[in-house]
């Protein structure tokens, strides 16, 4: 392409750009000059009678409107089946407390619930575990809102071929401040056993988490972990 052709092409492109900008400005001015008027008639004459058969409330299950919202359950993915009915399943948002030398966690189709067969298998490898033990924790739906003076009903199913010494505790999100704790000591858990207890909060923490820890070597299966405020409306 020669110099003259290049100059001509440059002139054409600049002209088109200026024309485009001018049209955009005119359109914006035209739109800005328009005025919209919305009239709402709130008189009884405009009202429609609501049928007796119409009741309820619509909501869409996004951003935890149901689970973590209307449903008072504080534990997210309580059955370790976020990844579906097969293993390995997704245990998110559960996380592990301890390193690979002290604990090994996986999912197995070993639950006592025939319709929800996935359970968590937690193998404690350390003979001398770190202070506070090793285990798992659940932050709930972006943090559990635990309030001072209130009690929380903890329910879960556990199984082990040996005796169990498992601590269930509520801590702030960093795991350092203890809000409530209870120890599960049981020698008869060779078959699945339902554990129920109450945790009484000593302080308030808006971003709490539930921890299940132990310092006893062995294998524990855990499933269907639930934490619900005692004052929940039913």
UniProtKB/TrEMBL annotation:
InterPro entries the record matches: Glycosyl_Hydrolase_51
Keywords of this entry: Signal
Coiled-coil zones: none
Gene3D superfamilies associated with the record: Galactose-binding domain-like
PROSITE patterns reported in the protein's UniProt record: PROKAR_LIPOPROTEIN
Keyword Signal in record: yes
Signal peptide region: 1-27
Keyword Transit peptide assigned: no
Gene Ontology MF terms in the entry: alpha-L-arabinofuranosidase activity
PANTHER family from the UniProt entry: ALPHA-L-ARABINOFURANOSIDASE 1, NON-REDUCING END ALPHA-L-ARABINOFURANOSIDASE
Protein name, entry field: Alpha-L-arabinofuranosidase C-terminal domain-containing protein
Organism: Aegilops tauschii subsp. strangulata
């Amino acid at each position: 392409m020669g110099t003259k052709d290049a100059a001509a092409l440059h002139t054409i492109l600049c002209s088109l750009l200026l024309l485009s900008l001018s049209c955009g400005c005119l359109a914006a001015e035209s739109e800005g000059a328009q005025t919209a008027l919305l009239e709402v008639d709130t008189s009884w004459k405009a009202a429609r009678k609501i049928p007796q058969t119409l009741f309820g409330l619509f909501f869409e299950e996004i951003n935890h409107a149901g689970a973590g919202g209307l449903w008072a359950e504080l534990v997210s993915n309580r059955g370790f089946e976020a990844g579906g009915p097969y293993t390995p399943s997704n245990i998110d948002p559960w996380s592990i407390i301890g390193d690979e030398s002290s604990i090994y966690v996986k999912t197995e189709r070993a639950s006592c619930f025939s319709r929800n067969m996935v359970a968590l298998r937690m193998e404690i490898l350390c003979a001398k575990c770190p202070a506070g033990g090793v285990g798992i924790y659940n932050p709930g739906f972006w943090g559990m809102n635990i309030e001072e003076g209130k009690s929380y009903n903890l329910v879960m199913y556990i199984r082990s071929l040996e005796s169990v010494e498992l601590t269930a505790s509520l801590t702030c999100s960093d795991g350092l401040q203890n809000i409530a704790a209870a120890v599960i000591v049981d020698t008869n858990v060779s078959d699945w056993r339902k554990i129920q207890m109450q945790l009484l909060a000593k302080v308030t923490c808006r971003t709490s988490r539930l921890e299940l820890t132990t310092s006893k070597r062995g294998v524990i299966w855990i499933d269907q972990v639930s934490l619900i405020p005692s004052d929940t409306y039913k």
